[in-house]
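Entry 14. Ran structure prediction on the chain below.
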Amino acid sequence: MHRLVTLMATLAAAAIIVGCTPTSKGGAAWTYAPELAGPGGPVSGAAGSPAPPNSDPASGAVLGTIKVTAADLSFSPNMVTVAEAGTYTVELTNTGAIQHNITFDDGTTIVADPGKTASGNVTIPEKGMNFTCSIPGHAAAGMTGMVSVGSMPMGSDAPAASANPGTGGTAGAPVEDPNAPAYVLRDATAPPVLSGTTHDIDLPIIEKDITVAKGFVVHAWTFGGTVPGPVIRVHLGDTVRVHLTNEGQMSHSIDFHASQTAMNDQMVEIKPGASFTYTFTADYAGVWMYHCGTAPALHHIANGMFGMVIVEPKRGLPKVDEEFAFVQSEWYLGAQGEPADYAKASSGAPAPDFVVFNGIANQYKDNPVKVTSGGRVRVFILDAGPSIDSSFHVVGTIFDTVTKEGVQLVRGNAGGWGAQAVDLSPAQGAIIEFSPVEDGMYPFVTHAFNFVVRGAIGIFSAGDGDPGN
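Output, structure tokens:
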């Protein structure tokens, strides 16, 4: 049985949190004292009274063993006290579904695969030492801790909290780089339906720098080298086999919302260099999301690992003049050239730096999308989030056909009903049709206008774009 890749990272992070309590003398005593193993066997220190060492620290010998358990996404214990400064063996047991490590301030790193225990030695100084999991996003999600010596009070002599490695974290908005590469325009044209009934699709997992707005570069994690990943378009009942090879530096996975499969069957950890084939039958028509589900899933989605699947009815959709595919998503920027900032993305009140269509702010405002005046336009739209709703609206038009999450507004209905906007929560999709009535410019936006100024705008240019001609 494949191991479960955690999608609910915040639940998994609810591990034992161990703190310190003040003593009667105004100092601090830890509520957890580690088991120390040495030549004489294991002994335990009482809370606030660490166990005695098993060897002479002056000899350079190992003084004992510190045991830490890593889960998705927590360390237990995350506060450890040892009797005195010196060298200790650290045993890291990984009970999570993905690889973790314990990385100390001096650079010592011990890596453990799921279900495994790994060990190594670290020298703890008098002032103690911090530790984290250095896999991007894991420290920001809660995988941090500290080793303290004796009953040292938490004061100026304690080690400063270490940075969260790999998060690309910044306290505020990054600074635009005038020398950043120009962005690469994403063709919004929807791909044709794949021929046949069985499809083999190669979808490599690639890490790469992507310019997401003028002057801003993100070190993105991608499916297929683009954000969003490639659009996959099939018919109802087709069999889809997606071949994934992880060409990046960290573990990933994939979750196709168009599929029906147990989490612990196919949503598995794909380690760097490994390959996996995800197979599903397109049992239901609609516009579906796919994304990485590796913990923290929020960070992996926020850093570019998502895409669209279109499943058409067996007989297909009626012919129209133009078809486009748009994915709305958010960027929470870290430092230039670094991954998205997990701490910003996980805020309870999301404030993205950019909200975008097809990965890049303002790209279809800068490069209007050509359509036919009086023609039929079909838009496949998905809100990938990870956190912001969409209210998709095309200025100057009315949608006469909408299929949203299996619910339909049909053109020419008896009541004469139409739609001005389509509301989508993260992971919801729709198919929209309309006809521009004359030559001119028809902006498309999310009608949450605070995000329009952050990049969520494009333009359909009908005819020659001039209604006066």
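The longest strand covers residues 322-331. Will compare against last week's run tomorrow.
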